[in-house]
Amino acid sequence: MYYVYILKNKDNTKLYVGFSENLKERIKDHTGKSVKTTKDGEYKLVWYCAFETKNKALEFERYLKHGSGFAFSHKRLV
Prior knowledge:
The protein has 78 residues and is of the alpha+beta class. It is built from three helices and three strands; from the N terminus they run ββαβαα. A three-stranded antiparallel sheet has the order 2-1-3.
């Protein structure tokens, strides 16, 4: 399976959208401060979705990071 996920910082001021083939390990990376973009604060998993194909997951990740997908994620997913 392939996962798209959203993390939120503890102040509720920042979101991080990501992709992973191993969600548990990737979250450990984020909470362990080994990911450059999230090492400046505490983040928690607030949403994820599983996909059967890598291509579909990457397409959805791109959608959530831009334009109407960005607005959708803020209004409906978190």
